[in-house]
Specification:
It contains ten helices and six strands; from the N terminus they run βαβαβαβααααβαβαα. With 232 residues, the protein is α/β, with parallel strands linked by helices.
Amino acid sequence: MIDEPLVLLPGMMCDARLFSPQISAFSKYISIITMPLQGQSTMADLARTVLDSAPPYFALAGLSMGGIVAMEIMRQSPHRVTRLALLDTNPLADPEDKGPVRETQVKRVLQGELYAVMRDELKPNYLAKSPNRQRILNLCMEMAETLGPEVFANQSFAIQHRPDQCETLRSVTIPSLILCGKEDSLCPVSRHELMHDLIPGSRLAVIPNAGHLPTLEQPKHTNGILEQWLRV
């Protein structure tokens, strides 16, 4: 296992509970730090906040929005990251036609409709069909309600105005893992094939019977691949 700490960055409206199976599996071997992505409304500022709190050198794994912040960290301070894992994420800028949708969602959330927006428009798209689907959806709703409307608004703005990171990925030279659920409809396999092609020597892993949150949907399979990455 690695000697340096592992920094985990959760997805939009998620917290450390997104990585509960990974923390349980690996915390007896390595130091694990989960960073909340809040208090800022741009990817650049979120990345700087993580860097200000992180150890001098660390392994880095981010899922979804966490992966986008991880790419920004690689743009700002690549010398501090010893290995990189990008899970169910997207290196491209937000499509222009998504802007009005995101802005409408933010307006509704700030008017008190956080639960409804998460329930009806976001969370149903996250997961593959499985016996654990409802339990995981319930956890996602709990995390979102814990974080609250202001975090939703800031994170939505950051995602909407995120930069394209393809050039950043072309310059990555550390051991890198690209992992996704096979049934991820938000960040499809094609996006991960692109990232795999952009990062020389990276490994691509596609988890069957998982959607956008393989850390919770298929934790054993996901942990096995992460362990290999941590031992490279």
